[in-house]
Write a structure and sequence with these properties.
The protein is an all-alpha fold and about 170 residues long. It is built from nine helices and no strands.
């Protein structure tokens, strides 16, 4: 049994819930919103694992999310993360708009939780909007995130990408 699918592993179970939701096999409910808020509060590697699952649903399952979140610096994990992001950015490999939209809805619901990391939720939504080339929402969410936390790197990355004309999936840079 893998780490993420071990029923005694809370984080692994939660990645399974998110994976099932992203794939349309679980509804968005208050419990899942609470789980997502908790996960987004844990560490940036968890946030990044969730984002990568939304961007590359074809290649990222619960076990892979778990590895990305808790062993991001292991050579195999780091190489896989890099390859998946690069391929998605350059070619659109694995991109499914409905999965990104579902993840955005989950982050939006999570942001309403009492202990939600407001700046990170906004930064994730900015990044997802950037991925969908939605300049208005990406810029709005990124600025709001930076208003809350000046050191919110993901929000700054979104602003920098738009200011330089950098867009995913083979767009002109």
């Amino acid at each position: 049994m893998n780490s993420a699918t071990n029923p005694n592993n809370t984080a692994g179970t939660e990645f399974g819930y998110v994976h099932d939701y992203l794939r349309g096999r679980r509804p968005l409910d208050a419990s899942l919103a609470s789980v997502a808020a908790s996960m987004l509060s844990m560490r940036l590697a968890v946030r990044d694992a969730l984002i990568l699952a939304a961007i590359r649903p074809d290649a990222v399952d619960a076990d892979t999310m778990y590895a990305f979140a808790f062993t991001p610096h292991e050579p195999h994990t780091a190489t896989l993360m890099s390859r998946l992001l690069t391929d998605a950015f350059d070619t659109g490999d694995g991109y499914e708009p409905q999965v990104i939209e579902r993840f955005d809805e989950l982050v939006k619901a999570a942001s309403n939780e009492q202990d939600a990391p407001d700046a990170q939720c906004l930064a994730v939504r900015a990044y997802l909007a950037w991925w969908q080339r939605d300049r208005d929402n990406a810029m709005r969410y990124a600025v709001e995130a930076l208003d809350i936390s000046e050191d919110c790197t993901l929000a700054a990355i979104v602003l920098a990408a738009f200011s330089r004309g950098i867009l995913p999936r083979g767009q002109e840079r």
